[in-house]
Each structure stands twice: as structure tokens, then as C-alpha cells.
Amino acid sequence: MTLSSAVIGLLVALATAQQPQYPPAFPLQPSLASAYNNAPSVLPNILDSSAPNAQVVCSGYKASNVQQSSSGIQADLTLAGTACNVYGNDIKDLVLSVRYQSQSRLAVSITPKYLAPHNESLYILNERFTPLPGAEDGCSNTTSDLAFSWSNNPTFQFMVSRVGSGETIFSTYGKKIVFEDQFLELVTSMVPDYNVYGLAESFHSFRLGTNYTQTFWNAYNLDNDQLPDVNGHSTHPVYLETRYGNGSSTSHGVYARNAHGQEWLLREDSITYRTIGGSFDFYFLSGPTPKEVISQYQVGIVNTPIMQSYWSLGFHQCRWGYLNWTNLRDVVELYAEQGIQLEGIMNDLDYLNLNRIFTNNANYPVGEGKEFLDWLHARGQYYLPILDPNVYAPDPTNASDTYAPYDRGVELEVFIRNGNNSLYYGMEWNGFSVWPDFSVPQAQQFWTEQFVEYRKKLAFDGFWLDVSDPTSWCTGSCGQYQRSLNPVHVPFALPGDPNTSIAVDFRYPEMFNITNATEAAAASASRASQMSAYPSMTLAPSPVLRRTLATPGVRNINFPPYAINNFLPGHSLLKQVIAPNATHLDGPYNSTEYELHNLYGHLSGNATYNALVEVYEGKRPWFIARSTFAGSGSFAGHWGGDTNSDWGDMYFGISQALQFSIVGIPYFGVETCGFNGNSDMELCTRWMQLSAWFPMYRNHNNRNTIAQEAYRWSTTAESTRRIMNIRYSLLPYTYTLFHKANKAGETVLRALAWEFPDDASLKAIDNQFMSGPALLVTPVLAPLATTVQGVFPGVAAGTIWYDWYTLQKVDVVAGENKTMSAPIEHQPIAVRGGYIIPIQKAGNTTAMSRKSPWSLLIALDKDGKASGELYLDDGINIVQNATKNVEIEFSKGMLSTKVAGDFQDGIPLANITIAGASALPKDISLHIDGAACETAVVEVKTGGDVTYITGLEGVTTGGAWQNDLTLKLVY
């Protein structure tokens, strides 16, 4: 089609159709805009060549009073010379504690020796916020895989090594420990060309490289959220390192339990760890394989991922710009008409009254909403609206501007304060707002009450918690004396605001000018005209200043002397978040946001999960959070932020997903087809193919862009039907992976290097990945491509790979980067020999899919063997009345199952397909629980090295997994 003036007019109309719900005042009063821009900026230390080097100017520490035992080491550390006070005030006396916590885990902490009750939170991360692992019974230095050694020459330094090989995995030798009240630094030497992964969340290649700085200060950039190589929405200070040599590898993990703003400087021969507060609290994991490191971190430290509901693995559609309940219904019906699965429909801000949480506006009346939800639930589908953690603060001078959640929060004293008895009033979508302090118990009561009351109005099925970084679009408590202006617009133009340069987004992905030349020209001209007519109304960044100097005896928490490389305007910690000097209610500590900022998304997420559990009366909540911390996976999923509609953003989503596999948040997904900017047919088609493998599968975009539901382009619709049928048929396999993640800290999506840990050629691959151990995905990640290249690991050792679609062996040699055909509607998928995959034919929802007869796909290895697993439960409840585990083996022509558990689904086994079996068996026998079954109705045929067994439903009518089953093929 041509992007004509009529179409452009329609885009503008769609983008601005929801304007009545937004306050008309724009921009804000000058006083507020001035306050927003008034805070100074700083130059990050890593960019400041004049910043002192703490390793040069600081003295380090000396150890004394050393007490060693089989369980660990305790010692005093005393400043070895004059205090340098380079980026804060040196702490003279520290305590070293080394604990052998398990065979695979060693803990090393360095904390101030003298802590007053009122300042403990400055240095100690409370175990109420994230797990604090302890020692397992019987652990000692004689049972540990790891050893701790230290020296006082010239100052205190330590080393962690493997007991068996003596390999050093962490060493501060030759470096100094720096410990100040606002700056900590520790440097470990690294092997050449090291391989480090993790440190989520970053928009970066999966292998982090040796010239990279990971900053942790949770933040959101409305203009361009997914910037590469900067701090993101989450803080997970843990990394996995893999070392190769002599045809094998070893892996280990390092976790720094600290929530303060921090940086990890990955350089050629070292990693420097710096924080602006807290203590050193390290945990070393011995592995020695990547998968063991990940499991040790999740099981032993942060807790394993929550078990998702079965239906959460379906596909979900969202858009900022759905006009009303009728619009939502139309979308649901159009997906059905096109034969594309849809599990849940989501609302962005559109449903809220003036963007105030727990409300509905006139376009989304509650009565009509109840009718819509009754209709939706009857179809087996779900409704999942947005939720923000901030609470609108009404105008105190206007008696009609009332808001019950605010009044209840004031009554319960749950809101964050402004350093004194007044509340902290920041700026969010709804205008001036306050934020619940989720570090105190009464906030949970408040939050749960709001959920319970709102669900009496509308039977929502889950929430996605947005802007929980926590975001505030002004500097400091800007609403302190301006609440009489409420309701007000945020201090910048929003996508879709009329008479602005972002009323309509005319950006399109790379190569759109080739595939859609006429439309691209029209969009480019329209964008130029729009920008000329409506200059940008976003706020200009503040001038860059030099860092704040340390003042003896003073803690400067708004502008700390060490400036981390926060990517927001001016690099200031004050910008677009609750200010660091805002105070919490956790007396006697009165912690500030400086200490707890990176925990807000984690704590608000935990409170949201708990409230949903209360609302759903024991059912597993559907819940994803934008901002997370170490341990969030035990209650939340996560999405990767506001992606842009371009090919690079699609590619980086793979590394994000693998990062969150490491940190224990497997329920991860991205804004498929892109959130900002317009997608096109080719990009959206390829992205729908890729995201079909991400556990959280959602299409979501901005209200000033064109609609991008999967049915919008016929090619995208056809491709989506194909890939989604595969996804839904594999739900039993994926659900079993989630069960293993929940029980043992295993991963769902996997890097190739984790499944084949001794192959050094795989160390940097992040354009392919695996779903569990059995499926290899090679997505198309570039425009205009009809082929794609990929590797097939393990071939040199005899691994067989089968094409998913034909079940023929992939013709590939060891080390080959194979070129595969990948026309627009096709995505290459391979099955690994040696695995058995349980399958159910895809229905239009997960519930319908679960009613389909069972099939088994058996992919034989070089020895003619294969194995698999299946986990079953009701898929809904947190506590199960019955479960079932099925172990499936195939060897020497015989299939056998071992069944444990009482869950019964009553679904028969219909088909068995054996890839790699070319000969037609002469006979077949089937025994269920030892009793022979009549097999006259069973048909066996072969073709193309594949054996097909059908008709089994006639002899497994009681259910495929009711009893142990043995199927013998006689050749």
C-alpha cells in the first residue's frame, strides 16, 4: 500500500483518539520545568581522566586477629595507612568473614566492624529484601571445591581457587581493598581473553567482552529505552565465567550481594568492582559446568524460579492505543478469524481514568468491562492490564478531586517521605504522585486491599507492573507545593500528543526504503514536515559538570563523589527517578532511596505477587515486572523494556533472554515487532518467529505507531500460524522445562555453549540458542534474507541433528557454519538426537491444546537411543493435589515409560514418530502395566528414515500416562 495523506491522517487520528483521558495542561508550569532542569549534572568517573585512581592514592588494609577453623576464617582489617577519603570517608576498621557454605559455594564478606543501629542499612543488605544464604550442615574446608588464601604483603589481598586443580578463579593480589562510606573498590585479575556472561540487565552481546562497563542504576529512558551498553531496568550483580583449555572447560560464578548503585569495569586483564555504598558480600560458585553454576546460584542463593501457570505460556497481545472494550474484542475476534492462537489481551494505560491506577475511564466503563470479561473468559482467554506502583496525589484545594487509594495510603502511613514528615511528591503518568514504601509491612496491606477492591469491579487475570524502576519525571519532590496544579501533564510531549513532533512516529526499520520505497518516501517527507512544524518539546539535558568532591565527615547522597555512568541526562542520579535523598519508613534506619533504589522494582514486584495470590485464592498469578533484582524470579517474570522496531533490537533480545536464564528469571520476553517506531511486514514476521521461543510471548507497540498485530499482514499471519502451532504443540515440553527450573534451577532457553561446554567455538554465539536440551533455533535476524547460517554443535563427537520439519538428518560436518534455506515464512529448527519430546496438537488456546491426544517425537542418537521427561499437573494452583512425572526411554527398539504420581489427564497416546529409524519392524507389541494389549488397530509405516506409529489411541483410551507402558518393535 502507499502511505497516502489519507493514511497519514488515519494514523494521526488513531494516535490521538485517547486524548480526553489526558490532562489538557501542556507543558507544565514554568516553575516545574525549571525545577526539572535545575539539578546539576556530573561527569562519570570512567569518563573523567582527572579523577583520582583509588588504587594509587589509597592505603589498603592489614589483617589481624585472624581466627581460622574448618568452617571458615574471621579477621579484623585495619586501614594500613592514612585515610585517602577519595570518594567518601574511609572506614578504618572492618571485619573479614570467610564461610564454606556448601561443597560448591564459598562466601566472603567485608563489613564495617562498628555499626550503629541507625546506620546498619547503609552497609548491610537486609535479608528481608533478598535471600541471604547460610551454610549447609557439615560444610568445611575439607569438603569444599574452593579454597580461600590471603596475604598481608604489602596489604591485605585474597584469592579463591579450585581445590583439585589449583586454578585461581578470583584474585585481588597486587591490588588494594578500598572501603569508604560512599565508595568501595575491589579488583580481580583475569585470564587473557576471558569469557564472562550475565550482569543482567544490559542491551549488549551475550559475551560481555574485555572493554565494557556494566552500570547498575535502574532507570528508564522514554525517548529511547533500549540503548546499548548502558544501565537498564534491572540489577543482577552476578556473572558466569567459562575458561577453555585442552579440549575441555571449567566454569564458575561470582555474585556480589549489594543493591547500591555500582559499576563493573571489564578490562583487558581485570574486572574492577565499584559501588557507592554497602559492603563486600561475595559468593563464589565452583560449577564446574555452566549449567551447574546457574543451578548453584538459583538453588543455593536467590531461590529457584516460580512455577508459571500453564496458560502463561500462550501468546498475548497488547498495544498502547486500544480505544475501548469494543476495540479489545475486535482484536480478539480478528485473531480467531485468522486462525492465530491468542491467550491473553492486554491493556496499556488506555483504560485508566487520567492514568490513575485501580480506575476506569469513560471509554472503559466497568459494566461493559464485566460483559467483555465474561465473554473472554468463556472462550478460555485472559485479560491482563498494566499497573504502575505510583499513586495519584489529589489537589488538596479541590474538594472534588478525591482519590481513595491516596487517602487510604496516608491513613496507613505507607508512602515514601521527603526526608522529613512530608511526603515525597514526584511526577508520573497521572501527574504528581506518591509511592508506597514496599520495604515496610503496612505497604503490603495497602497494596492487597487495592487489588481486592478493584477485582470486585473487574475480574482481571494478572498485572504487568510498569515504571517500577521507580520512574519520576521531575527532580526531587517537585510536587511539594504544586499539587494544586493537579491533574497535570508530564513535563514533556507524549507519543500521540497533538501538535508535537511525536504525534505520529514515521520511523521504519532498516531496508524499508528498499521493500516499500513509495511508503518510505512518504513517511520520510511527513516526518520532516512534522519536525519542522512542531519542534521537540522534550527537556534539554543539563550542562555536564565535573564530579562532586568528597567532604570529610559528610555523605552526599544526591551527588556522590564517585559518579557512576548513569545514562540519563547529565548522568545524575536525580534524573527521572525518585531522588536518592527520599526517605523510607523502616525505622530505626530511615533508609534513603540511595540505599534502596535498585530494590524498588523487586520489592514492589513481591508485594504485587503476594496481593495477586490473595486475590486469586491460591492460583498461580500471571505477573511480570519491568524492574527486577537478584531473587525476583521466585515471584515474577520480566520483559526487556521498550524495544525499537529495528533489526538490532530484535537480535539483542536473544542475549537478554540468556542473561535472565542465568539469573533465574526464565519467564522473559520482549516487545515483539518493536514498541517504538513502526514495524513492517518483514521485521514483524521474523520477530514473531523469534519470540515464539521466548517463554513470555507478547506483541506490544506505542500508540503513535501503526498497528502491528500478527494478522495485519497476510505473510506475517501465515508465518505466525506456522510457528505458533509449533510453540503450542511443544507446550508439554516447555512446561516440563519450567518444572525443572522450579525444582532444580535448570534453564529453559539456553546458550549453545551451556549444552556443549567444551567447544570453545561456541563461546560468543548469541544468534542461535536452544530451547531446553533438545531444540536448536536459528532465527533470521537481518532484512531481505532468504537464507541463514548456523552451526550444529557436537557433530565431531557424533551428535545427530534432525530438521524439525522433515525429520531428516541435517547434512553438516564438524565446524561448518551451514547455510540453510529460510524464506520469509520459514524458521530453521533442529532436533537433537538422543531426545524424546512429548507433543500435543496445537489448539486455539493452551486449554484446548491440553485436550489433544499425545504424541511422542523420538530423535535417535548415534547408538539408536533417546530419552525424555514429562511433568504434568493442573497448571493452575500453587499447591497441587496431584502431579505426575513420566520418564521415557527408547533403546534397542523398545520404548518404555516410568510413571510416578497420581495426576490423571485421561488423554490417550495417539502417535509415535521415530527419526533415524529406517527399517520397517516385522511386529509390534504393547504392554501397559505389564499386561499385553491388542495392537491390531496400530499402524506402522516408514519413509525417509522415519518410522511412524499411529492408531495407539485405540489401546491407550484410559490415558497415555495412567500406567507404565512398554512398546517393543521387532525387526
Automatic annotation (TrEMBL):
Keywords: Glycoprotein, Glycosidase, Hydrolase, Signal
Enzyme class, spelled out: hydrolase
Entry EC number(s): 3.2.1.20
Gene3D superfamilies associated with the record: Glycosidases (3.20.20.80), glycosyl hydrolase (family 31) (2.60.40.1760), Golgi alpha-mannosidase II (2.60.40.1180)
Residue ranges occupied by any Glycoside hydrolase family 31 TIM barrel domain in the UniProt entry: 305-737
Signal peptide (UniProt feature, chain positions): 1-17
Enzymatic reactions: Hydrolysis of terminal, non-reducing (1->4)-linked alpha-D-glucose residues with release of alpha-D-glucose
All copies of domain Glycosyl hydrolase family 31 C-terminal, residue ranges: 745-837
Keyword Metal-binding: no
GO terms, molecular function: alpha-1,4-glucosidase activity; carbohydrate binding
GO biological process, one term: carbohydrate metabolic process
InterPro entries: Gal_mutarotase_sf_dom, GH, Glyco_hydro_31_C, Glyco_hydro_31_TIM, Glyco_hydro_b
Similarity comment: family membership: Belongs to the glycosyl hydrolase 31 family.
Protein name, as recorded: alpha-glucosidase
Organism: Aureobasidium subglaciale (strain EXF-2481)
